[in-house]
């Protein structure tokens, strides 16, 4: 008789993306059960990672999003326990989650990304902000956001200095470091990469000001999904190529989702997500479905890549 593999499904956690992680985790739980695994749920908000019993787990399916789940913290525990786990490793996760580090990697590898500057809370002054905005030499709006958040949490688009000043003050009450980018208009396009191969690109047309948290996770926001993205064949192949390159230069594993803006015939890489959502509104499953990969099969492909020493 074949012994069922025991999968520890890690989900929930304490980040601001807990709710989304619960949805991802529950969807993946059902898929893992269908694949014949014995699945044990583990929520780090309720139990500490140190309480994972290595002898009772064959592999870990990481369904966490945000802080401590997507930034290398959870991954470092899994590495220490020597339990094979899904998605990217410690350094890749940390680098992708940190918008400054990932941008520096993109720039070093000639991947176009919006111009930016960074301010630490301790160095902040109104004069400093004015000077840095002036140096950016942009006629566009300015996007201000936390360095280490996902799901567009804390992202503000400011079309004048007064708004930028107010939003910066508010965000510095919560975060110690902020990144400021020139706003790029154009098409909102996201690409799924699985095991070093691009699955496809989807275009999003949010009814809201931009593709924010509500546009991502609430059906009522009525974001329009266009699959495949409305691009010429050459452009479509180009964005897939850039996404695979970003996935590789960051040494990512399993599945990632890269976020882009297409403006004036140029693709601007905004960020790469190493723990993309797996909810009923999530983009990676939608892109996979277009490629005739069912949700269960997608989960299998992610699970098959589980390992340590990433």
Give the tags.
Rossmann fold, D-amino Acid Aminotransferase, Chain A, domain 1, five-stranded antiparallel β-sheet, 310 residues, globular, 35% helix, Dna Ligase, domain 1, alpha+beta, four-stranded antiparallel β-sheet
Verbal overview:
The chain is α+β, with helices and mostly antiparallel strands and 310 residues long. The protein folds into 3 domains: 6-86, 3-Layer(aba) Sandwich (Rossmann fold); 95-111 and 185-304, D-amino Acid Aminotransferase, Chain A, domain 1, CATH 3.30.470; 116-182, Dna Ligase, domain 1 (2-Layer Sandwich), CATH 3.30.1490.20. The protein has helices spanning 18-34, 73-81, 90-97, 99-108, 126-136, 161-172, 213-217, 233-249, 283-290, 295-304; strands at 6-10, 38-42, 59-62, 116-120, 142-146, 156-158, 177-182, 187-194, 197-205, 224-226, 255-263, 266-273. Strands 10-9-8-11-12 form a 5-stranded antiparallel sheet. A 4-stranded antiparallel sheet has the order 4-7-5-6, with helices on one face. It has a 3-stranded parallel sheet with strand order 2-1-3, with helices on one face. α1 (18-34) packs across α10. It is globular. The two termini are 32 Å apart. 42% of the residues are buried.
Quickly describe the structure.
This protein is α+β, with helices and mostly antiparallel strands. The chain has helices at residues 18-34, 73-81, 90-97, 99-108, 126-136, 161-172, 213-217, 233-249, 283-290, 295-304; strands at residues 6-10, 38-42, 59-62, 116-120, 142-146, 156-158, 177-182, 187-194, 197-205, 224-226, 255-263, 266-273. It starts with 5 loop residues before the first strand and ends in a 6-residue tail after the last helix.
């Amino acid at each position: 008789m074949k012994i069922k593999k025991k999968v520890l499904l890690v989900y929930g956690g304490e980040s601001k993306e807990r709710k989304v992680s619960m949805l991802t985790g529950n969807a993946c739980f059902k898929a893992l059960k269908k694949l014949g695994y014995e699945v044990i749920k583990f929520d780090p908000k309720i139990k500490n990672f140190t309480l994972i019993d290595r002898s009772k787990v064959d592999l870990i399916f990481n369904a966490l999003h945000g802080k401590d789940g997507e930034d290398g913290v959870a991954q470092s525990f899994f590495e220490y326990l020597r339990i094979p786990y899904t998605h990217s490793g410690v350094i890749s996760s940390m680098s992708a989650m940190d918008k400054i580090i990932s941008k520096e990697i993109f720039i070093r590898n000639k991947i176009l990304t919006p111009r930016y500057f960074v301010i630490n809370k301790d160095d902040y002054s109104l004069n400093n902000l004015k000077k840095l905005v002036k140096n950016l030499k942009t006629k566009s709006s300015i996007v201000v956001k936390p360095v280490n958040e996902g799901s567009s949490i804390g992202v503000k688009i400011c079309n004048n200095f007064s708004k930028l000043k107010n939003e910066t003050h508010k965000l510095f009450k919560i975060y110690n470091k902020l990144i400021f980018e020139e706003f790029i208009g154009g098409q909102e396009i996201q690409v799924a990469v699985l095991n070093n191969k691009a699955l496809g690109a989807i275009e999003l047309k949010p009814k809201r000001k931009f593709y924010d948290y509500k546009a991502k996770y609430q059906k009522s926001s009525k974001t329009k999904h266009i699959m495949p993205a409305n691009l010429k064949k050459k452009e479509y192949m180009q964005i897939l190529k850039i996404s695979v390159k970003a996935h590789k230069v960051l040494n990512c594993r399993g599945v990632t989702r890269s976020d882009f803006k297409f403006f004036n015939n140029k693709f601007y890489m905004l960020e790469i997500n190493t723990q993309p959502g797996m909810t009923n509104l999530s983009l990676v499953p939608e892109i996979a479905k277009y490629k005739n990969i069912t949700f269960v099969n997608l989960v299998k492909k992610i699970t098959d890549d589980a390992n340590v020493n990433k």
